[in-house]
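Course assignment 3, question 2. Fill in each field.
Student: A.L.
Task: Predict the tertiary structure for the chain below.
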Amino acid sequence: MILLMFSSCETKVDYGEIPLYSSNNNIQAVIEIPAGTNKKIEYNKTSKAFEIDKKNGKDRVIDFLPYIGNYGFFPSTFSNPDEGGDGDAIDVLVLSENVSTGTIIEVKPIAIMKLIDDGELDYKIIAVPIDKKMQIIKANNYLEFSENYAELKQIIELWFYNYNKDDTAVIKGWGSELEALNELKHSSL
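Answer field:
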């Protein structure tokens, strides 16, 4: 298992250039926002730093429940605006205990939530850590997730519908781990 964390005093890492797959051939995710955080933290590709997003010159703070999982992105991916995407890396919600901003964690996608945010595809891949000691749910695929954690799916939907009152979000359904993997393959740089 690879679990890396970088502090702000170290050499700047270009998280966008990290390979999608680890040396163990597992999918890697970069955590921007630890579970339980209400600040909207984003990786700035120019400064190569994690920064609190600004809105109208003020820190963007989620005026709702804090993030329900560790939120981040898949490095070396791109949601193409020419295909309706938002121009960012593919998003991930890692269901695990809280991990720090800047952590690179090996994950297994188990589902994809097909979110449309202000008219742009902003799909969210739901994943669990490869390291079983870090897992908080026992789901290895979409079927297990859907059958054993239907309430959790509802909570995730409600959270993404309500966390940002300024955007119009529509969920066009859910997909399996295979659809999530296909999305990553299609979006890989």
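Instructor remarks: The longest strand covers residues 104-117. The CA atoms of residues 64 and 162 lie 8 Å apart.
Grade: pending
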